[in-house]
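Re: that chain you flagged

S.,

Sorry for the slow reply, it's been a week of failed gels. I finally had a moment to sit down with the sequence you sent. For the record, here it is as I used it:
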Amino acid sequence: MATDDRDRRDDGRPEQARPRDRTGRPLPYDTDVRPLAQDHDPDTVEEALDLGVRLWNDERYFEAHECLEAVWHASPQADEDFWQGVIQIAVAGVHLQRGNPVGALALLERAGQRLEGYPPLHRGVDVAAARQTCRDLAERIGADGPDAAPSPGPFPAGPDGPWFTADPAALSPSPEPTPVPDEPVWLAAGRRREPRQR
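Prediction finished late last night. Pasting the structure tokens below so you have them in one place:
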């Protein structure tokens, strides 16, 4: 049930305004502790991807997943599972930082499944290494039990680094930057469809 005192964005949609710790947990409004999760507002998908990779490599997985969602939301349908799988590895990192190995295991399994249909190197991401990370982390959590606190490690970048394209047939990044969409491409496409006849 919506109330008038909820935090909202300028467009009226709900958005949490409370500060968050580095794992994304909401803190009281008047919190003055560090380090806090930072809000990032990249202008382009390419900037979001670069920032997401840097945050991931700093083990700031919550912030990394927030940035990488802009990449997923702008991706063509052929790459939706790919980017979502990458994001799920970051979110597994968040669960591990929060001490939730069960949640991490579930996400690692889903991430591995989503990445299954992609070649070993896709959009500059080492998919083979990402899938191996999923298997290795799951195995380590299983062996070390609920107290395991492994990390996904560095972003699984290929030799030339990750890149984005809105063209599913592209073999290299677009020379023009891609603006960050206000909403996922798939959601906007669903709204453009003709309503079903009853």
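What I noticed first: The first strand starts at residue 121 and ends at 122.

Talk soon,
D.
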